[in-house]
Amino acid sequence: MNFSKTAFAGAPVRANKLEQIVTCIQQGNCCSVVGPSNTGKSFLLRSLLTEETRRHCAKEGALPPLMVFVDCLEAGDSEHAFYELLLRRTIEALMQADFDNDTVAELRATHRELLLHSQSDVAIRALYAGSMRMLCYKAPMPIVLILDEFYDVLRQLPPWPFRQLRALYDSLETQLSFVTGTSHFLEHLRGDKDVYEFRELFHLHTVVLHPLSSHDTRAFVHYLAERHNHTVSVENEQRLIALSGGHPGLLERIYGSVSLLLPNLTTPIDITPAELIKISPIQKECQRLWSELESEQPALLTLLTGGETKLSATHRALLERKGLIRQRDGKPVELFSPVFARYVETKFTVPAEPTEIGLRVDDDTGQIFVNDTEITLKLSEPQRKLIAFLCERLGVVCSYDDIAVGVWGVGEGVSPGAIYELVKRVRQKVEADWRNPRYIVTVPGKGYRLEGPDDWSDA
Fold first, then answer.
1. Which has the closest alpha carbon to 247: 208, 284, 277, 220?
2. What is the helix (H) or strand (E) element at residue 254, kind and residue range?
3. Residue 101 contacts by C-beta under 8 Å, 6 or more apart in sequence?
4. Rounded CA gap, 368 and 366, in Å?
5. 13-16: long-range pairs with CB below 8 Å, 24+
6. Under 8 Å between Cβ of 23 and 56
7. What is the pLDDT of residues 299-323, one digit of tens each?
8. For residue 351, what are the contacts with CB-CB under 8 A and spacing of at least 6?
9. 5-208 belongs to CATH 3.40.50.300
10. 177 pairs with which residues across the strands?
11. What CA–CA distance (Å, rounded) separates 128 from 134?
C-alpha cells in the first residue's frame, strides 16, 4: 500500500505498521497495537480515521468501514459507564458520517435509556448488544471500534463486557471488529481465563511498535523542523537520530530541549547523554518509559552491568520483543538509545538513606507515585482524579461535597458511601496498611485530608 502524507494523523511514519492494521481490518480481523509510552500509538490509531486510510481499509467493491474512535480514559470504572461511552462515540461517528436519521434516532433513544434509567447489569448488557446488532444489520459498511488507552478498562472491569464484545464479534461475523491500543501486551494486562476468549481475537494480530527505523526517524526530525520552522543541519539530524534511538517521545523531548539551548539547529549538538538526562522533560520521558518496562527492567540492568554475555535467552527475547536492543556492524548488543541507557545506569545507585516522600502527582506528566514507585496504571480514572484533587490540597480537609465535585464534577447525588468506597480502594493501593492509613486520613465528621512528610514530622 502507498500512503500519502494525508493518511497520517501526525508525522508520516510507521507506514508499514499502518499497513498491518489496515490489512487486519480488510480481512475482518481484530488487531492489538502495543507500544511503550509515547511511541505513537494514538497517532497511528487516529490515522485510521483519515479518509485515505479508510479507503484502504475497504474490501474491493465495498464501502469503507465506519471508524468509531474511543478514548478509554473516559470510560470511568464501571461496566455501565463503558457501554455508555461506546454507544455515545458510535452515535457521534454515525452523525459525522450523515448516517440514516431513523437508525441514529433509535440509538439515541437507547443511549438516553442507558443514561437516565436505573438498569440491572443484565438489562444494560442487553441494551448495548441489541443496539449494536441493529446497527450492524442496517449499516451498509463494517463497524470498527478503535479502543485507545484500553489498559485500565481491560484490567479493572468485570469480564462481562469483554465476553459481550466477543459474542457480538462472533455473531456479526465481519461486520464488527476491534482495534486496541495499550502499552503492554493484553495477556500481561490481564491473563485470567475469564477474558481468554476476548484476548484470543488478537493472538495472531498483534502489532508491536519498536523505536522508529532510521528512515522514519529522519522523517520525524523533518516533521518537527517543519512544524517549528527550524533549519536542521545534516550533522545535527544524525545526532538527534543517534541520541533518541528512534523513540518518538524521547526524540521530541531532545529536539525541544536542544533547540532552546542552542542559538539554532545548525550549531553542532555537543551535549552528552549524561547532560541530557538532567534536563527535566528528557528525564521525565525516560522515567515514564522505565516505569512501563516492569518485566524488562531486570534484563536492562543485566545488559548494562554484565554485558551481552550475561543475558539469558529469556531476557534477550524480552528486550528484542519490544525493540529495546540493537546490534550494528558486528558490535556488541546495546540499548536502542544512549540517553535512555544513561538513565538506566542511574538506577544502579541506591540512596543510602531512602527518604519517604509520600503520595504525589507529577504535574507535567500526570504520573502518580508512592515514594519512588509509580502506580498510575494500577489506578482507575476516578481513583487518579481523587489523588490529584487531594494532592492539590495537601494538608487541607476536603469535605464529601468537595470530593464529589473534584472527582465527578457534581456536588449532589454522590453519597458519602460512594466516596468512602472510592477512598477505601485508593488506600488499598497506596497504603502499607490501608486500615491504618498514613497518607489519606479521615477527619471525623468532616471528610479526608492528604498528609505529607511535614505532617509526619510534627506527629
1. 220
2. helix 248-261
3. none
4. 6
5. 13/40, 13/212, 13/216, 13/219, 13/220, 13/223, 13/248, 14/40, 14/44, 14/209, 14/212, 14/216
6. no
7. 888 888 888 888 888 888 888 888 8
8. none
9. yes
10. 144
11. 10
What single-letter amino acid sits at 338?
A: P
Q: How far apart are CA 430 and CA 453, in angstroms?
A: 15
Per-chain mean pLDDT for the chain: 90
Question: With contact defined as beta carbons under 8 Å apart, do 374 and 368 qualify?
Answer: yes
Find out whether 327 and 333 touch, Cβ atoms under 8 Å. Answer: yes
Given CATH 2.60.40.790, say whether it is the number of domain 359-458.
no
Cell matching residue 409: 464534577
The number of residues in the chain equals 459
pTM over the 0.70 mark: yes
Burial 78-102 (b: 16+ CB within 10 A, else e): bbbbbbbbbbbbbbebbeeeebeee
How far apart are the two ends of the chain, measured CA to CA in Å? 66
Integer Rg of the chain from CA:
24
Measuring CA to CA, which residue among 400, 437, 406 is closest to residue 419?
Answer: 400
Among the listed residues 391, 362, 407, the one whose alpha carbon sits nearest the alpha carbon of residue 451: 391
Q: Is 90 helix (H, G, I), strand (E, B) or coil?
A: helix
Domain range summary for the chain, segments of one domain joined by +: 5-208, 214-348, 359-458
How is residue 429 written as a grid cell? 493501593
- Give backbone dihedrals phi and psi of 132, rounded to 5 degrees, phi first: -70, -35
Q: How far is CA 233 from the centre of its chain?
A: 34
Instruction: Tell which wins on pLDDT, 390 or 453.
Output: 390
Tell me if 367 sits within 8 A of 374, measured CB to CB: yes
How far apart (Å, rounded) are the C-alpha atoms in residues 459 and 455? Answer: 6
Q: Which stretches of 139-233 are DSSP H helices?
A: 151-156, 160-172, 186-189, 196-200, 214-228
Residue 144 pairs in a beta bridge with 67, 177
Q: Which helix (H) or strand (E) holds 326?
A: strand 325-326
Which amino acid would we find at residue 79?
A: E
The sign of the torsion formed by the CA atoms of 200, 203, 205, 210 equals positive
> pLDDT digits over 206-260, tens only?
999 999 999 999 999 999 999 999 999 999 999 999 999 999 999 999 999 999 9
